[in-house]
Amino acid sequence: MEHTNPFVPYAPDRYDEAEMIRRGREFFEHVDRRRSVRFFSDEAVPRECVELAVMAANTAPSGAHQQPWKFVLIGDAETKRRIRVAAEEEERQNYEGGRLTPEWRTALAPLETTSDKGYLEVVPWIVVCFAEKYGLRPDGARVKHYYVNESVGIACGLFITALHTMGLSTLTHTPNPMAFLSEICSRPGNERPYILFPVGYAAPDAEVPDLTRKPLDEALVHF
To answer: Is CATH 3.30.43.10 the right assignment for the domain spanning 37-203?
Structure first.
């Protein structure tokens, strides 16, 4: 088949049925051990680990291959404190100020979350993923991006999985509204905050809610 644009051969690995199932089960068991963490150690984490997780995120499929994401890595103590203060201010409006609806409070109750986000100063790294609403050419002209939310969501999923694979923990923190992150991280107007990730080792005494995940027969429908 002739192409107008450059193409390269692609030959993904193939396995027999038993090996496919073994590898799939092994991967499921690996990711099934992943949990969102709110109790972190202040132990240092190599910067390269976060960079590798972002490299994994960069392998995500995206609309028209426009890769509409930007990851901002923060390790400076003062910046982490600014983020904590701003995040807690927004969260107090949610938890103590009445922005959370009764239904939302009921849904959150099993997690026992509060407006206290002290872990943002404990972790060695904070990573903020920004979604690029549109691209910018060197001359300032806008470039339309397609399927931004879907693309960035997939990239963030790979980022989380890569951290877990390296033995690190994180949490998908989405303080609402998140505009303060654009200011603190000095991001341009074509980007909007998508998810804030505290990144580090789980604290030795970390606890997580005793939750169960949706079983296969509720997640999968056969036709």
So the answer is: no
